[in-house]
Known about the structure:
The structure is a single chain. The chain has helices spanning 2-15, 17-40, 135-142; strands spanning 65-71, 80-88, 95-104, 113-120, 130-133, 148-156, 162-169, 177-184, 196-201, 212-214, 219-220, 226-232, 238-244, 250-255, 262-269, 275-281, 286-287, 289-293, 301-303, 309-310, 316-321, 324-330, 338-344, 351-358, 365-373, 376-383, 387-394. By secondary structure, the chain is mainly β. The strands form 7 sheets. Strands 10, 11, 12, 13 and 14 form a 5-stranded antiparallel sheet that branches.
Amino acid sequence: MFLFLGASLLLQSIFGRSVLLRLLLALLATCALLVLDVVQRPHQPPPALAAWPVTTAAPDLSTLRVVDRGPIPMPEGMAAAHASTLLAMPAGHPAALTVFWFSGDRESGPNVQIAASQYLRATGQWTPARFVVNRFAMGEQLGFGLRRLGNPVAWLDGDGRIHLFVVATGGGGWAASRVLHLRQSSAGSSLQELAFAPVRVLPLSWLWNTSFLVRNAPLRLQDGGMVLPVHFELGLKYPVAVRLDAQGNFRGLERVSQRPYALQPTLVMQSPANWLALMRDERPHGKIIAAATHDGGRHWNDLPDLDLDNPDAAVAGLGLAPGQLLLAYNSSIASRGTLDLSQSANGRQWTRVQTLEHGTPIDEFSYPALLWHDGSLWVTYTVDRHRIAWARLQPRAGSTP
C-alpha cells in the first residue's frame, strides 16, 4: 500500500493530477476487460466421441496409388500460393470438394486474399479459382483493420453451412495473429456465389486472443461438432484443441502438449475416444512430435517423438478406420524437397506408401492436406510457394486389410 501511494505521489508530481487520473482509469479499464474475458471463457468441455470418415470396409492402404494429379488453377495474375485446406461437399452437390488457400503477389503481401476452387463431379476438373475472402472488406465488417490473411481451414456444420477459420493479423507478424471465424453468408455454396461473413475472433487467451494460429483440418465428432487444432507461437510454441458444437459455437479448449516447441497439430483418430496429435517440431534436426488423449480430448499426455525426421515443416494426418492411419510429411531432415505418404496401424510405427514428390534440396513441397472422400484419398500441397498441387489416390480394386 505504501509503495502504491508513493508511486502515485511520484507520478502526480511528474505528470500532474489529470494525467495521473487518466493513467489510473486506463489501468482499471484494462483490468476490468481482462477479468470479463476470463469470466466469460467457457469451462473445459466434456469428453467427445469422434466420427470415422469411412463407414464401409476400410481399404488396404498399402495399395494406394496415384490415379490423377496436377496443379489447381490460380487466381489470374497471382504469383504466390500457400496453405491449402480440403472440404468434402454434400452428396448431390455439383462439386465433390472445395479447396481453399491464400494467394497474392507474395506471402503477407497487401493483396493476399483467400482463394477457392471446386472439383466438379460432372467434368472431373477444377473450376477457375476465385477469391472468396478479401481482407479489406472483412476488416470493414469487423470494425478493425486486417494486415494479413492466411492458413484457411474449412468445416461444414450441422446445417450444411461452410465455416472458415483464418489466421488474421493487425499490427506485427504471424506471431501477433488471431484466429478469425467466418461463416457462409451466401444462400448457396457453388463457387460463384460463395461468400462469408465474420462470426468472431475465437476467444482463445486472456491476451486478447493474440498469437494463436490455425493450420490443420478439424476432427469431426459424432454429435455434429468438431475439434479444431490450433497453436500458440509468441516465444514458446504449444498446441491447443478447440471444441465447437454442431452450429459452430465455441465450447472450450484444452492444451495438447506441454512441450514449448510443438506447433501446427494434426488430429488423428484411432478410435472414437482415442486420438493422436502429431506436430511440427520447431527444433533443428527434430522429429515429428506426438501426444495422445484416451478420453475424447478431456486430458492429453505427451508421447515419445515418432521415429520420423521433420525439417520444421507442417504434417497432415488422418485416421480412416481402426488400425488405418495416414500421414503426409516432409521426410528429409534438411529440406522440404521430399513429400511422403505413410501408413500405420498403431500410430507409432510408420511405413511409407508413396513418395508424392521428390525434388532437389531447394525445392519445396509443403503444407499437405488430406481428405478421404468418394472412395479416394485426396491430397493437396504447396509447390515452391507459387501454386497448389493436388493428387488423388485409390487402393487396388478389391483390396482389404
